[in-house]
């Protein structure tokens, strides 16, 4: 009888311990959809488990299994450098339907990219960077692209030369000086100077 009582007490203690720890014997993977993550450094947290997320991934899975009715509370333990991520549906009760509804959406910070222009005495200059373009007017001394993502590789090209002038980027890797490349910093960044001279 005494042994039966001790076994019952031990079973009750074990059950309480498992309940306090969130249960055991889970068979569901807790998954998080990821969008817009272009920078490393994001770390997610749930039930003491820290999950680093590599840039470019669209889905990540916590290694700790959960079971039906387990509560989860996924938070962002660390933001990636140069970006801001937001947790969506991070809190809930696990079921075969809910363990895949959590998501994190990230947006990389962006800053202006500008450079100096010398000798621009005529109109017609057109600079392009990917789908974006700018047309500095005659007499101005600078050009600017207002929103370039932190850490992004960029390439600025001369699409059209100004009337009667030839413009070249200083330090250009192209033979005709028609483009410049670089990597965007974590703040407003200065690109190569564009020198314009009469043809």
How would you describe the overall organization of this protein?
This protein has 199 residues and is mainly beta. It contains 1 helix and 18 strands. The strands form 5 sheets. Strands 10, 13, 15, 17 and 18 form a 5-stranded mixed beta sheet that branches. It is rod-shaped, with a radius of gyration of 28 Å. It starts with a helix and ends with a strand.
Provide the fold topology.
Layout: H1 2-20, E1 31-35, E2 42-46, E3 49-53, E4 59-61, E5 71-73, E6 75-78, E7 83-88, E8 91-93, E9 102-108, E10 110-118, E11 126-129, E12 132-134, E13 142-149, E14 153-160, E15 165-169, E16 179-183, E17 189-190, E18 194-198
Parallel strand pairs: 1-9, 10-17, 10-18
Antiparallel strand pairs: 1-4, 2-3, 2-6, 5-8, 7-9, 10-13, 11-12, 11-14, 14-16, 15-18
Brief digest:
This protein has about 200 residues and is mainly beta. Helices cover about 10% and strands about 45% of the residues. The chain has one helix at about 1-20, and strands at about 30-35, 40-45, 50-55, 60, 70-75, 75-80, 85-90, 90-95, 100-110, 110-120, 125-130, 130-135, 140-150, 155-160, 165-170, 180-185, 190, 195-199.
């Amino acid at each position: 009888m005494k042994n039966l009582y001790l076994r019952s007490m031990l079973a009750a203690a074990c059950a309480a311990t498992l309940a306090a720890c969130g249960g055991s014997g889970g068979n569901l993977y807790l998954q998080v959809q990821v969008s817009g993550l272009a920078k490393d450094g994001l770390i997610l947290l749930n039930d003491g488990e820290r999950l680093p997320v590599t840039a470019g991934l669209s889905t990540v899975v916590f290694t700790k299994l959960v079971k039906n009715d387990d509560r989860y509370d996924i938070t962002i333990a660390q933001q990636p450098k140069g970006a801001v991520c937001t947790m969506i549906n991070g809190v809930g009760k696990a079921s075969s339907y809910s363990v895949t509804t959590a998501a994190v959406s990230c947006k990389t910070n962006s800053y202006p990219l500008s450079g100096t222009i010398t000798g621009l005495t005529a109109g017609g200059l057109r600079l392009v960077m990917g789908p974006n373009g700018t047309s500095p007017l005659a007499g101005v001394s600078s050009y600017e692209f207002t929103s370039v993502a932190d850490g992004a590789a960029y390439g600025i090209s001369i699409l059209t030369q100004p009337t009667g002038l030839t413009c070249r980027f200083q330090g250009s890797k192209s033979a005709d000086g028609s483009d410049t490349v670089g990597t965007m910093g974590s703040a407003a960044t200065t690109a190569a100077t564009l020198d314009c001279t009469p043809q």
